[in-house]
Structure formats: structure tokens, C-alpha cells
Model the fold of this input.
Amino acid sequence: MMIATQHVTMRLEAGGETVTILDDITLDIPEKQTVAIVGPSGSGKSTLLGLIAGLDRPTSGTIWLNGREITQLNEKTMARLRLANVGYIFQSFHLIPTLTALENVSIPLELAGDRHARQRAIELLEAVGLRHRVSHYPVQLSGGEQQRVAVARAFACRPPILLADEPTGNLDSHTGQHVIQLIMALHRDAGTTLVLVTHDQQLAASMERVITLRDGRIGSDHLTALSYDESDDRL
Ligand SMILES: Nc1ncnc2c1ncn2[C@@H]1O[C@H](COP(=O)(O)OP(=O)(O)OP(=O)(O)O)[C@@H](O)[C@H]1O
Ligand SMILES: [Mg+2]
Done:
């Protein structure tokens, strides 16, 4: 399995009370699968994605990424493992404002010790249609352009896993579609396992599997018609 969780529970203290945000989540996601996580606001989607990325630790339960158990790792080991395995796209882009588009994309490559970081970052920006924007800062880019930079950054180290939290949530539908097409093209080229949180039913239905969260539990988990379709022409 590329991603596995076993009995994952997340509890937080809020206002003197313990709130259960995720309750006994057990999941297996095989290599290359495309998965949508859907569910009402507050059902725990972002929390689950953050746990899978190792950005947070569950209260109990176990998580494996690419065969490695991550719940006991220290920060430094986790950061290294994340760099090698996980690309993460946030709803609100999360680019570093003081760095240009090129620098935002080349940073993970430099951290990974890639000697051709700059060249590869340029190629990635070209792939997302932003060759002419390499020296622009995030404030000089539109929302859609910023998200395309974020897509390029997430794929920079060719991660086997891509996690995307409402990647089109802040974009108009046309721009959103463009960003999704980019994500799907990169997924197909690299065989990336894709887990995408969305409120968009149509987008969810274009994944091979849809998992619905309700109040921190798995409400349903099913394969879509697409999972049986071998055609490469999914969007
Ligand atoms: N640090 C925190 N402390 C207390 N409660 C939190 C914290 N982070 C999240 N929560 C609560 O956990 C629940 C799940 O939050 P989460 O962000 O995972 O939901 P979501 O499904 O992503 O919602 P949305 O669709 O609105 O993004 C919410 O009720 C939220 O208020
Ligand atoms: Mg969320």
C-alpha cells in the first residue's frame, strides 16, 4: 500500500472539552490510485490529509507512507520522508511571499540536494504554462497562476504521493479545471498516488475512489465507474 492508516483517532482539547475530530479511520490506498475525500465542512477531511502528510500526529493509531510507519518518527526524519514522498497542495496556495515563482518551485529540489534544481524548476513552470512568470512574486500572480506554481512545487521532487486539499476551492471553475487537468496529467505521467479533498461532486466522480467522511468517521468508501476504465482519457 502507498498509504495505510489503522485505527487512526484524533482528539483535541477545545474550550476545556475533548473533541473527537477523527474516529477510528482505517484505510488502504494502493499505489497510483486516485481518491477523492468528500464530506461536510468540519467532518475532518483536512485533518486526515494533514495526518497522512505527517504534518500532525494522531492521538492514537498508526499511519504508513510508502511502507514506512510514520507516527513515531521525530520531526527531522519526518521532514526528510515527507520531502521524498509527499507533494502537498493547499486550498490557499501557501507560496512563500518573499520568493519568486522560480524560487518557490526550486526550494524543495534544493533541499533534496538536486544540482539541477533551477533548470528543473524552470521546466516545471513551463509544464504548468508559467515560463513567462518565473521571476514574478506571488502577489504579482493571479490566484490560478499561484495555484499552478503550487502544483509545480508539489510535483518538483516527483513524489509518489500527492495530497491536495481543495486545490480548486479558491479558483473560478475554468481556472480550477485547468489546475485539475495539470494535476491529472502529472499524475498520469508519474504514476502518482493522488488523494484530493473536494466539495465538487463532479471532480470527486472523476477519481477512481470516493471516501465520504461524516463526523470524523468513514461514512462510505466506494470505487467509481472510472476505476474499471482502463482508458487514459479521464478528463
Ligand atoms: N486545532 C484545532 N483545535 C480544535 N478543533 C479543531 C482544530 N482543528 C480543527 N478542529 C475541528 O476539527 C473539525 C474538523 O476540521 P477539518 O478542518 O478537518 O474539517 P474539514 O472537513 O476539512 O472542513 P472544511 O470542509 O470546512 O475544510 C472541525 O470541527 C474543526 O473545528
Ligand atoms: Mg478542510
